[in-house]
Design goal:
Order of helices and strands: EEEHEEHHHHEHEHEEHHEE
Keywords: ATP-binding, Cell membrane, Membrane, Nucleotide-binding, Transport
GO molecular function, one term: ATP binding
Number of domains: 2
Structural class: alpha/beta
CATH architecture of the largest domain: 3-Layer(aba) Sandwich
Shape: globular
CATH superfamily of the largest domain: P-loop containing nucleotide triphosphate hydrolases
Helix content: 25-40%
Largest sheet: 8 strands, mixed
Distance between the termini: 31 Å
CATH topology of the largest domain: Rossmann fold
Number of strands: 11
Protein name: Dipeptide ABC transporter ATP-binding protein
Radius of gyration: 21 Å
CATH class of the largest domain: Alpha Beta
Family: Belongs to the ABC transporter superfamily.
Bound molecules: adenosine-5'-triphosphate
InterPro entries: AAA+_ATPase, ABC_transp_ATP-bind, ABC_transporter-like_ATP-bd, ABC_transporter-like_CS, Oligopep_ABC_C, P-loop_NTPase
């Protein structure tokens, strides 16, 4: 098994949302509520879940932009500092419109102390070729490129500093359908060539299915199911994962009757449930579900497929 790049151990993040007259926080939004995760070199880990479940907060923790309020994040490198780059959904707003492309691409190297223009231009030229852009265009500005080309520029910039992990935040959702496949293929090629590790954040289960080796399903700031993508998609164990996947229309299949498989809205995160976070919405609730649940292997035969559900406690391996 490839080595771990990073390990998250019981990560919690909460944000103050109301303060008293002394400025002390009275109410909190609990964005992450005990995330345990190991990310391995060269893999693509897909993180899926509806709006507000904590995907962005998780990315911010990985990038060091948000300190966990509890828990530990360990990077397996000897530099002492991790290097995490991000590719955003909308390349239009993530690229500085005032800079020529060669400067945008080499910004991370510049921050690392490389400042000679000829060196940086040569580096930008190599990176441009790697992502399928002509080096002849490097003096141009972002608005002179198409959406797909701009996303290639953003990917080149992410590659520039030899990152431990690249977070892909909905990397294709702002692009034309015809361009999406090209960008996905480029990401695959680069991953193969450079042993890149991706964390892919998306609402789009089809993109996650296509790109990820493993999938983490998030609900209310927790991972409720984690495992090999094919395994999780073929046999979802958590009732929330089932709802999430049932809500994805399948080409050629009849649409579900309206309301029949509606995903229950994410409950508020100001006051967390004391037991299973999904309890109120679960059709399979049983005695014991009022207790907090841990992420545990579904069975001893599938140790890499974990679920946070009382029905899969070891004494009842078939999830009855
Ligand atoms: N700075 C903040 N202050 C207060 N609450 C916040 C802050 N940032 C995030 N939250 C809350 O934390 C929760 C998780 O938000 P987050 O943006 O991580 O979710 P998400 O899954 O990325 O959603 P989306 O898919 O819409 O981007 C939400 O309830 C959000 O309102």
């Amino acid at each position: 098994m490839p080595e771990a790049v990073l390990t998250l151990d019981d990560i919690h993040v909460r944000f103050p949302v109301k303060r008293n007259w002394r400025g002390q926080a009275r109410t909190w939004a609990h964005a992450l509520n005990g995330v345990d995760l190991t990310v391995r070199r060269g893999e693509t880990l897909g993180v899926v879940g509806e709006s507000g479940c904590g995907k962005t907060t998780l990315a911010q923790v990985l990038m060091g932009l948000q300190q966990p309020t509890q828990g530990q994040l360990r990077w397996n490198n000897d530099r002492g500092q991790p290097n995490v780059q991000i590719v955003f959904q909308d390349p239009q707003s993530s690229l500085d419109p005032r800079l020529p492309v060669w400067k945008i691409i080499t910004e991370p190297s510049y921050v690392k102390g490389e400042s000679q223009e000829s060196v940086m231009r040569a580096r930008a030229s190599r990176l441009a070729q790697q992502v399928g852009l002509s080096p002849d265009y490097l003096n141009r500005y972002p608005h002179e490129f198409s959406g797909g080309q701009r996303q290639r520029i953003a990917i080149a910039r992410a590659l520039a500093s030899d990152p431990d992990v690249i977070v892909l935040d909905e990397p294709t959702s702002a692009l034309d359908i015809s361009v999406q496949a090209q960008i996905i293929n480029l990401l695959f090629t680069l991953q193969r060539e450079h042993q890149l590790t991706y964390i892919l954040i998306s609402h789009n289960v089809s993109v996650i299915r296509h790109m990820s080796n493993r999938i983490a399903v998030m609900y209310l700031g927790q991972i409720v199911e984690l495992g090999d993508t094919a395994q999780v998609l073929a046999r979802q164990r958590h009732p929330y994962t089932r709802l999430l996947l049932d809500a994805v229309p399948v080409l050629g299949a009849p649409l579900p009757e309206s309301g029949a498989q509606a995903i229950p809205e994410l409950p508020g995160n100001r006051v967390l449930p004391t037991g299973c976070f999904f309890l109120d919405r679960c059709a399979f609730r049983k005695q014991g579900c009022e207790q907090q649940q841990q992420l545990k292997p579904v069975s001893t035969e599938t140790p890499m497929h974990s679920v946070r559900c009382h029905r899969y406690d070891h004494d009842e391996p078939d999830g009855k």
